[in-house]
Amino acid sequence: MPSTSFTAEELAQRFGLRLHGDAATHVDGVGTLARAGASQLAFLANTKYRGQLAQSQAAVVVMREDDATDYERTALVARDPYAAFAKISALFEPTRVRDPGTHASAAIDPSASVDPSAHIGPFVSIGARSRVEAGAIIGPGCVIGEDCVVGAGTELIARVTLVTRVRLGQRVVVHPGAVLGAAGFGLAMEAGRWLNVPQLGGVLVGDDCEIGANTCIDRGAIEDTVLEEDVRLDNLIQIGHNVFIGAHTAIAGCAAVAGSARIGRYCLIGGAAGVVGHLEICDKVIVTAMSLVTSSIREPGEYSSGTPLMDNRSWRKNAARFKQLDSLARRIGSRGTD
Questions:
Q1: Fewest CB atoms within 10 A around its CB: which of 12, 79, 179, 193?
Q2: What residues act catalytically?
Q3: What residue ranges define each of the domains in the chain, with the CATH number in brackets?
Q4: Cα separation of 250 and 231, whole Å?
Q5: What pLDDT score does 3 carry?
Q6: Which pLDDT tens digit goes with each residue over 261-298?
């Protein structure tokens, strides 16, 4: 693989950053502030790591204006150093060119449509009436069921399953093992036995979304389960049927969203958080890790629940007292009426 190298001046011009120091400084990779080598670029976004700056061996550091004032080496000044670092890092990410065409082992239904510029890898299956658009990449072992659409420039990395009626927008990335369009968990009880409620909807995923490994998104019962554009889902997430997730929302790993919940735009849902079904979360809400959302949230802000970590002896004592809160509150309330 040919080496990639840029001068600090080239990076500043490409990404609209202000150059501080030696314009000719070369960068051939990226690293953390503490471990970057003498030809690598690092970033300083959190002031608690500022103490590492003096000892850092990085050739160039991306930082804010205030941090660059007294810095004696080369820096790139950005309003948001982390975002700038993300863009620069992409220059050093190896990309594998996928040639257009269909592997001989792929099985494609005669009624399916595959654009000639798409790449269809080995052991791929594409079902009836499905469509793969221009420049899409379908990696090895993927299964695309009936009536699905894979948008232009979208990539299913490997072993992704689109069960039925899944429509992916443009430039979507779906990581290995994800399952989209499986039947939602719809049940009705009759005479002591469960009946499955038919799941007749689909899944609609907007442009520029990313769906993590082994994440599951169920199809809707009647209408679609919807992810608007630029939604980012981490690994091992469960999205129930008829959930709606607004644009630019990000959900961390092992979270679960129950059926028919509606999550607004620009929300952040922490790892292992849970959202109960049939409620609404407004735009710009942060739910911290391990929280359980049991009622609708109508005001933007940061919300938490759960018990903070403590030593086991203290936790057991507090748990015992937690059981007594209701009776204690009732006693206090009755005294207030005396």
A1: 193
A2: 241
A3: 6-92 (3.40.1390.10)
A4: 6
A5: 66
A6: 999 999 999 999 999 999 999 999 999 999 999 999 99
- What backbone torsions phi and psi does residue 256 show, to the nearest 5 degrees? -140, 135
Q: Please report the pLDDT score of residue 1 as a whole number.
A: 43
pLDDT in tens, 231-251: 999 999 999 999 999 999 999
Residues 6+ apart with CB under 8 A from 139: 121, 124, 155, 156, 157, 158, 159, 160, 176
Distance (Å, whole) CA 5 – CA 253: 34
Q: Is beta strand 75-77 parallel, antiparallel or unpaired with respect to 18-20?
A: antiparallel
Q: For the chain, which residues score pLDDT lower than 70? A: 1-3, 336-338
> Sign of torsion, CA 88 90 94 97?
negative
CA 262 to CA 184: how far, in whole Å? 16
3-state secondary structure of 268: strand
Closest CA to 116 of 147, 161, 152: 152
Q: Tally Cβ neighbours within 10 Å of residue 331.
A: 11
